[in-house]
Predict the 3D structure of the following.
Amino acid sequence: MMTLYSGTVCPFSQRCRIVLHEKGMDFQIIDVDIHNKPEDLAAMNPYNKVPVLVERDLILHEANIINEYIDERFPHPQMMPADPAMRGRTRLFLHRFEQELFSHIDAIENGSQKAADKARAAIRDNLSQIAPLFAKQKFMLGEEFSMLDVAIAPLLWRLDHYGITLPKQAVALLKYGERLFARPAFIDALTASEKAMRK
């Protein structure tokens, strides 16, 4: 059985929980208080961060790596595109999400007021750029739910929590977020602390 060491408020851990629930398989989740981490976490992950996936003698960290492994190990429903070119593009988008969106979260949570405001503006502007996409299609890659939707969902869930207000022209993105939040796997993957982030 797979065991996921997961932060109860960690957006990266939430990604992995969503994928595990989408796959509908047997797994165990060990909730980790990121302010009081267990000692064995540092032994499993040299960066002493969650999420960490353990399956027999395999230990993986980094949400995107964990999720690709789960997707290959349990291919139904497939969440990375089958076509190599599309898979390459998807990985590039995942990398862009890390660089242009998720890299700013630390400044919001732990930075000065000025750094946090700058980070909020960067996330708002980058999300606003992709918003028009969802006026035409249901999910990131069209009609099929994919790893890109999994990756961005935790951020969209936390917009209010992070104090990020999107402009009116991003309404299609907010509607897309509601589609993601309505998925049974998304709902099942939420921790009590994450549920409390939205009123």
